[in-house]
Design a protein that fits this description.
By secondary structure, the protein is of the alpha+beta class. The chain has 2 domains: 134 residues, Polyamine Oxidase, Chain A, domain 2, CATH 3.90.660; 65 residues, no CATH class. It has 8 helices and 5 strands; from the N terminus they run αββββαααβαααα. The radius of gyration is 25 Å and the shape is globular. It starts with a helix and ends in a 35-residue tail after the last helix. The structure holds flavin-adenine dinucleotide (FAD). The site of flavin-adenine dinucleotide has 14 residues, from helix 5 and helix 6.
Length: 276
């Protein structure tokens, strides 16, 4: 399990460029959407970080993000920036700074399509390199995340992996009662997905009545959450699935892991302390 999961393929990194500009006399009224995707050449891979990038001007939507007469802009590449050329460079060195400028120039060019004189307007800019993501976010080799090709199932991606292609391993481990969560397991990369894997882990460990109670409680917090109330559906659902929760998947032996790792399952109350 450790061997297989430790060797899963990963994406490259994302190149980032954060810009603050003087927007004096800048008319952006032609932009309906503050987020744009720029593809240099549709004949090239969209994974190529020098081919695909996006820019986003959040201050079009929310004026409180910067002082009046300014704009903040975030430009970023696909997650395909290769790490290898970067790993030879020392942050702060002239070579590193020059390579940062070289690799980020495609990001400047993307936003220039919308604001041609952006470089004259710049008041602040900073580039996020793979080494920055590695150092500040502790992402291994600055990666955007695990990369399993769509259409096939990753190892340990669950009992349905032969029927449905799940590109991320599930939460289970060979250790009883130990689950993983985060963006290297199902449902995958992104803050919503990483949070969802945490919710799946919590649900796996609890009786279904706890989920239903929590949903009921959340539904009373604000009228906009009323839809979360499980209502009569919850009453029907509870006796049907209650017997299967907490999930038996917490017991590694039941899901086919052959392991010598000692069980961490809490001892039953009938066992004496000595037996434990
Ligand atoms: C550059 C970049 C841009 C992204 N942009 C977006 C986006 O716009 N929208 C979106 O939804 N998602 C985005 N993502 C993806 C999203 O950020 C991740 O999928 C999500 O944050 C993963 O959450 P996580 O908790 O699994 O891991 P992480 O957020 O990576 O958290 C792991 C934590 O573990 C810590 N850690 C690592 N190793 C150790 C160790 N040995 N000991 C102790 N602690 C350790 C790290 O410091 C880190 O705090 C982006 C990712 C990157 C790298």
């Amino acid at each position: 399990w450790k061997e297989a999961l430790g060797k899963l393929p990963r994406h490259g990194a994302i190149m980032h460029l954060f810009i603050a500009i003087d927007a004096e006399g800048l008319d952006l009224s032609h932009i309906d959407d503050p987020a744009h995707l720029v593809v240099q050449d549709w004949g090239r891979s969209l994974q190529d970080s020098q081919n695909l990038c996006s820019f986003f001007i959040p201050s079009i939507l929310d004026k409180s993000l910067c002082p009046e007469g300014k704009h903040v802009i975030h430009v970023y590449s696909s997650g395909g920036e290769p790490y290898e050329p970067w790993e030879k460079l020392k942050p702060g060195s002239d070579e590193y700074e020059a390579y940062k400028e070289e690799r980020a120039s495609v990001l400047w060019e993307a936003v220039e399509r919308c604001i041609p004189d952006i470089r004259e307007r710049v008041e602040f800019s900073i580039i996020g390199s793979p080494l920055a993501h590695e150092a500040f976010l502790r992402r291994d080799r600055g990666t955007y995340g695990m990369a399993w090709a769509a259409g096939t199932s990753a190892p340990y991606s669950g009992l349905l992996r032969n029927i449905l292609p799940f590109p991320f391993p599930d939460l289970k481990t060979p250790v009883d009662g130990l689950l993983r969560c985060g963006d290297s397991c199902f449902p995958g990369i992104g803050t919503p997905s990483a949070a969802a894997s945490g919710a799946i882990a919590a649900n796996t460990m609890n009786h279904v009545s706890k989920h239903l109670d929590l949903l009921k409680e959340a539904s009373t917090i604000d009228p906009m959450y009323e839809f979360l109330n499980p209502g009569i559906l919850g009453d029907v659902y509870k006796p049907i699935v209650g017997g299967f929760t907490p999930s038996s998947e917490l017991d590694a032996s039941q899901i086919g892991f052959q392991t010598n790792i000692p069980s961490t399952k809490p001892a039953s109350t009938s066992e004496s302390a000595e037996q434990v």
